[in-house]
Amino acid sequence: MIMSEFQRKLFQNKLAKAEKSLGLNFSEAGDDVDKYGNSEDSFGELAPLPSVGALGSHSFHHKTRLAAESEKVFVQNLPKWGDFFDCNDIYRDPNSGYCFQTYYSKPIINDNIEDINNNPVIFISHHGAGSSGLTFAKLTQSLKKQSKLQGYNGTPGLFTFDMRGHGTTNRINSTESQNYYMSIDQLCYDFEFVLKQFYIQHFSKSDVIPSLFLLGHSLGGAVLTKVVYEEQHMLKYNRKANSTSKRKSLDLPLPESIFNCIKGLIMIDIVEDTAVKALSSMPAYLRGVPKSFPSLKSAIDWHISSGLIHNRKSAIISVPPLVYRRDKSGQGPYYWVTDLSKTEKGWASWFTGLSSNFISIGNSVSKMLILVNNDYLDKDLMIGQMQGRYQLTVFHNSQLQLKDTLTTQTKTICSEDSDELGHFVHEDIPDKVSISLLEFVERNDYEDLSRSQNPSVSSKIDLLNKLNKKWGIKK
């Protein structure tokens, strides 16, 4: 049966709508739907069949100009880094000349509080592969909000950066060999350099001693764990004798004065066995990822539709640093900033020994592992959790019933404000994650972060909780 012109038109528009919802476009240049998606895509508003010459150059350029103007307005209205952080300094390593883009939201201390040291609490954050420092933007905002709502005496700061080969760090370093040299040892070296520079810039000339809590998502958690484990076990990089460290050639010790400020380590959604198995399927996954996007909005939409991120409010700030336009005129498609396939040489080193290192870190550094939608642990983590070596927090979908919670020390939190949770849980539900982080700090560093003892504040919170319960309002 030969398809009528009307049926063909209807089919093409439905196909265009499906493509647009995925942020993709496979339409050929001769189709009635142009590559920017500027056509009616519903049956009720089906555009009339074009007459001869309707798709001429004038019409095409007109639609192209409208698409460019629309994209420009969309980009201008997106949130900026300054909406979440106070400063964004660039740190340059004098040894290699490599530069790192950093972001810092300063802590707030209530000077009216007595009987505490008033030392600031700061989360030092490290993102995972394929992400950027701005993945923590919404979490930073939530920490400020929840610190007030939960009655804490201050607001923790948050410092983060775009790691080697990612985000703005990639763009300001033109040498590809440097951008994609991502062994676990190199990433650890990078982190220690950035942390040292941060401390020197903000605390070396003051009497304030910060309480630092390291926060790592995915690969970032592996980097932070290796740094703490090796520093704590005296495997410093400048030891020339009796050392078993494989990073001897990367000679940059973390000063003891800085290391002693580290009070806690939090890993987000990373388990060694799971991560190692996932790497075997990474090439196939990367082949299925779009190579480019026609617009920044389509890149954001793809992250939502693919399930990588479920919170659009976070995606509109965390996704833009991941793509860029090659055309310096500001036209054309967006391409990935980081080509993850070029990092393959480092994959084998990224997660080896992660679980064993994590549970072997001594009690001077408190530890928490946050997982999403499952409580699966490998052998080392399971033994360590049963021994009480770290705190385990499991966030899960409200529709998911977890039946095999390991021990009473496992805290499972149902996410009633999100239908789905994914690997980027700190973006999906930043409020709930920030509350867990604040409670973790309070429990392990109560002198520097505690709740207000003001009776009026407590009574108002109690009253609000009672009213919420009475009216059936979920927290």
UniProtKB/TrEMBL annotation:
Belongs to the AB hydrolase superfamily. The active site is at S218, D269, H423. The gene is PPE1. The keyword Hydrolase applies. It holds the Pfam family Hydrolase_4. Residues 126-233 form the Serine aminopeptidase S33 domain. Gene3D superfamilies: alpha/beta hydrolase (3.40.50.1820). It is an enzyme of class 3 (hydrolase). The keyword Transcription does not apply. InterPro entries: AB_hydrolase_fold (IPR029058), Hydrolase_4 (IPR022742), PPase_methylesterase_euk (IPR016812). It comes from Dekkera bruxellensis (Brettanomyces custersii). GO terms for molecular function: protein methylesterase activity. This is Protein phosphatase methylesterase 1. Its EC number is 3.1.1.-. Demethylates proteins that have been reversibly carboxymethylated. It comes from the Eukaryota. Keywords: Hydrolase, Serine esterase. The lineage of its organism: Eukaryota, Fungi, Dikarya, Ascomycota, Saccharomycotina.
